[in-house]
Amino acid sequence: MQKEKCFYLGKVVSKFSFRGEVLVKLDTDYPEIYQEMESVFVDYNNNLVPFFVEKARLHKSSLLRVKFEDVDTEADADDLIKAALYLPLDLLPELDEDQFYFHDIIGFEVEDLVKGKIGVITAINDTTSQALFEIDNKGKQILIPMNDSFIHKLDKANKLLIVDTPEGLIDLYL
After folding, report:
1. Number of folded domains in the chain?
2. Does the pLDDT of residue 76 top 90, yes or no?
3. What is the DSSP letter of 76?
């Protein structure tokens, strides 16, 4: 399986027991739906390796306590610490029409209500405290905070995101 065909589910943050259980910090708004998964891909030595889940249950909100098959000791669990977990894209839950996954809107054209067409989304930067749309405008990068109050309309059919940004924000980049 290739990472491009998967979505990031979370990361193993610690071991939980001496029997090989681990705690996974999930990157999702709906952690409860992942309690029933049968398997997951673990980024192990830069390869996505399938691991089968014996049991999984929520542990303190967004942590998932997982027992993988053949991970039976503390040493086995230690080996997975900081490993990223992935699932195939087709396992993503369906979203409402006005919602989107980050990977879905790459390539969407962005239009501001005042400035008109401003460019194309090339990436989502979620490494900052607030996620940002990275927009290419003829070689110049425009960063717009991913804020619900800035998103006027999402037109998935036409791959168009219409934004209503504060006065002067786009001018900072042009």
Report:
1. 2
2. yes
3. H
pLDDT given at position 174: 84
Instruction: Identify the domain containing residue 11 by its residue range.
Output: 3-90
Read off the tokens for 87: 């699932």
**What pLDDT sits at residue 34?**
92
Name residue 131's amino acid.
Answer: A
Cβ atoms of 10 and 83 closer than 8 Å: no
Number of H helices and E strands in the chain, helices first, is 1, 12
Across the strands, what pairs with 87? 7
pLDDT at position 100 is 84
* Strand (E) or helix (H) holding 161: strand 160-163
Residues 84 and 119 in one domain: no
Residues 8 and 74 in one domain: yes
Q: Which amino acid is at 144?
A: I
